[in-house]
Each structure stands twice: as C-alpha cells, then as structure tokens.
Fold this sequence. Notes:
By secondary structure, the protein is α/β, with parallel strands linked by helices. The chain folds into two domains: about 5-140, P-loop containing nucleotide triphosphate hydrolases (Rossmann fold), CATH 3.40.50.300; about 145-395, no CATH class. Helices cover about 40% and strands about 20% of the residues.
Amino acid sequence: xxxxxxxxxxxxxxxxxxxxxxxxxxxxxxxxxxxxxxxxxxxxxxxxxxxxxxxxxxxxxxxxxxxxxxxxxxxxxxxxxxxxxxxxxxxxxxxxxxxxxxxxxxxxxxxxxxxxxxxxxxxxxxxxxxxxxxxxxxxxxxxxxxxxxxxxxxxxxxxxxxxxxxxxxxxxxxxxxxxxxxxxxxxxxxxxxxxxxxxxxxxxxxxxxxxxxxxxxxxxxxxxxxxxxxxxxxxxxxxxxxxxxxxxxxxxxxxxxxxxxxxxxxxxxxxxxxxxxxxxxxxxxxxxxxxxxxxxxxxxxxxxxxxxxxxxxxxxxxxxxxxxxxxxxxxxxxxxxxxxxxxxxxxxxxxxxxxxxxxxxxxxxxxxxxxxxxxxxxxxxxxxxxxxxxxxxxxxxxx
Length: 399
C-alpha cells in the first residue's frame, strides 16, 4: 500500500491539538489504512507503541467495545497504564451507540489525542454530536485519485502506461483494495462492496422496508450522474417504469443514500449573485467502479464520466465544488479553497468548432480574473484568451 500523503499532510499539523480528528468516507475508501498510517507516523516520530490504542469495530473480537460504558472504562484503563499522552484510534465508530459521550468525556478526563473514522456522513449530526461541537475537525477521505492509482501500480509492477491505467480507472474506479486483486476478481469485489454499502449502510441502518424502490433509485442516480436533479422528475421517471412512490419518499431515500456517501451532491452557485442556489443540484458517484456496477444502462457517456472524475479530483484536493450558473449559461464547476477560486469546463473531446466555442465561450462570459480551465481528452492544446486547456490525464497528474 502507498502512503496517503495528501491526507497525512492535513492531519500531521493537527497532532496533539485538542481536537478530535474525524475521518469520514464511503466504505472501503481506505480510512482504515490511513488510520494505521497515522499510528505508524506517531511511532516513527517519538510516541511509544504502548501509548497508542487502536480498535477496529468491524472486528468481532472488539464487539464488547460497542457498548459505550465498556469502551470508556477500557480507554480510561489504557490511559492510566500508559506514561504520558495516550493516542486513541477508533475505526468505524458509528457502530458504537453514544460514542460522542465517550469522546467528550475522554477529552476532559485524560491526556489524549483522538482519531476516529466513520462511514456515515451523519456521524457528526444529531443531538449527541453537540457534545463535541467545536472540538473536532472533519476530513473527508475518498478512494484513490488517479495519481495515487499510478503510484500504487508502479510500486506493485502492474503499471504499463498512463493511457491504459486511465481506461482502467474510468471503468473500475479507485477503491484501494481492488488494485491488489487479479483482473477476474475485481468485478466480484466491486459488486460485493456495493451490496455491503446498500445492505449495511442504507437498508439496515435506516430500516428501509422497500429495497426494490431503493435499488431502482440508486440505478437511476448512477445512470444520471452529472444531470440536474429534481425529486419530482425522478418520481415521474420511476412511475413510468412501474414503480410508484412519492416525492417525499424519494427525498428521504436520497438522504439515506447521501449519508452512506456512495453519491455526493454539488449545489448550484450563482456566479453573479455570489450565492448558493437551493434547486437543481447535481449528483456524482464517489467511485466510478461502484457506479458502473450499479448503473443499469449499457450506454457510456464519456462526457459525464470525465465530469465525475474531475469532480472527485477537486474534492480530494480539498476544494469545495459547486456547479456554476451565470445568466442562462452553466459552468461545470466553480471550486473554492481558502481565497482561491477556479472555473472548469469538462468534456470528452473538443471535436468540433461548435463544441470548442461552447466550452470556452461559457468561461469567456465570466467577468473576473480567477483561473479558468477547459479539461478534455484531447492531446492538442486548445488554450485561448487566457483560458487554459488541459488534457484530463495531465490535469489528474499535475500537482
């Protein structure tokens, strides 16, 4: 496995700060390995192994610690036995009811530094979460970026070329463990992971009694990544296929799906008004391998797949990503980080003058000096009028 340096660079400055470090991400996105890498970094930088407590709640051996009182007593005992600050690493904490009470008490009762992971975006919501409000920092963890996939395949000797790896990444996504499997096993692994997310993180957690509707809705979302979303139109589309439901039910199920982090929403941003809009958000798959496993359509829309990859790349680099709107024109992405803002248009190929004029023209209508990019699969450089054109592989590999 490779070091997840992008995340470690964000976490290392937070070590020994009186904040709970919360790592959230879809199941099998690499949170466990990242947590272990944090532990290894701590030891390599002077902390004693005896002062590091790691518990993975997915292991049956740790089932007893899913009781909040038992977990608290164990960690208090470990802290008293250790000399100095104790470092607590808790993996898949959502399995522990009232874990927030445990974490809140530990910050007061012992000298500790706490790191937790979870596979639910609502991990930090609800009444109990107010106990740690202002005392945590959240870091979203995503499957491997293309650059990480390249680093790993070079390390394990399977890399052949950027182009072949990109074609594979487009089809099978970036879940870390799939890169260690034989080709014939990858499809089964992705299917099993997808089923685990649907069953454990959506159906069981939310006590859904209509799995058929959930499956149909997931298939619809995966078929329609990067398209504007309307609960009313989705309800009508499902009804046209013989699946009757209500708009409220669709919205509830969408919330459950988002909580499992298998899809993520990009809100629309009014560039002129400088405000977020409440309607017509777009949904993107958190991993194209999972998306391709779930999609019911055999048609491949490379424009949408490219858009999804760029969206995930921006998130992994720490940007807040929105869909831009200016007058009657749309900008694929407006991305923010600190004082930085960038505009991006994404397409499969700039195959005609009409396409070139559309992709560059929309950006040229924006009257400010923030960087603007067009990203496509083309090799020739079509940059013009201060707008930079990048080949998608070059974009993914650039620092």
